[in-house]
Amino acid sequence: QVQLVESGGGLVQAGGSLRLSCAASGRTFNTYDIGWFRQAPGKEREFVATISSSGLIYNANSVRGRFTISRDNAKNTVYLQMNRLKPEDTAVYYCGAKLGSSTWDLWGQGTQVTVSS
């Protein structure tokens, strides 16, 4: 089982960029699908982007063309490069992990992203 730690959040002006990192412990990191999700105040957690153990990528429509997910298995890390940020991107961003067709049941503590207008 892996443990996840997010970092890289902060305050940025609209139009700016941030790169989030999700560092994982455990020797089986490369067997996990990793996803980024976010939760804004008063809203449910929503899907942002995922990258499978084989490198398949899925992005939410709201971030397509602005956010890029990638993984470096040698560093046990998944990144979320966020460009052209908008105030509506403001949320706590979480990374999650799952094996194959199982549910998303491993989570980090989250990192706050705030985009000012």
Envelope shape? globular
Strand content: over 45%
Q: What count of helical segments does DSSP give?
A: 0
Please mark out the parts with pLDDT under 50 across 5 or more consecutive residues, or reply none.
none
Order of helices and strands: EEEEEEEEEEE
DSSP E strands, number: 11
Helix content class: under 10%
The mean pLDDT is: 96
* Rounded radius of gyration (Å): 13 Å
- In this structure, how is the largest beta sheet organized? 7 strands, mixed
C-alpha end-to-end distance = 40 Å
**Structural category:** mainly beta
Please write out the topology.
Layout (H helix, E strand, L loop, with lengths): L3 E4 L2 E4 L4 E7 L8 E7 L6 E6 L5 E3 L7 E6 L4 E6 L8 E8 L7 E2 L3 E6 L1
Parallel strand pairs: 2-11
Antiparallel strand pairs: 1-3, 3-8, 4-5, 4-9, 5-6, 7-8, 9-10, 9-11
Describe what this molecule looks like in 3D.
There is one protein chain. The chain is mostly beta strands and 117 residues long. It contains no helices and 11 strands. The strands form 2 sheets. Strands 2, 4, 5, 6, 9, 10 and 11 form a 7-stranded mixed β-sheet that branches. A 4-stranded antiparallel β-sheet has the order 1-3-8-7, with no helix packed on it. A hairpin with a 4-residue loop joins strand 7 and strand 8. The radius of gyration is 13 Å and the shape is globular. The mean pLDDT is 96.
List the defining traits of the structure above:
seven-stranded mixed beta sheet, 117 residues, mainly beta, 0% helix, four-stranded antiparallel beta sheet
Short structural description:
The protein is mostly beta strands.
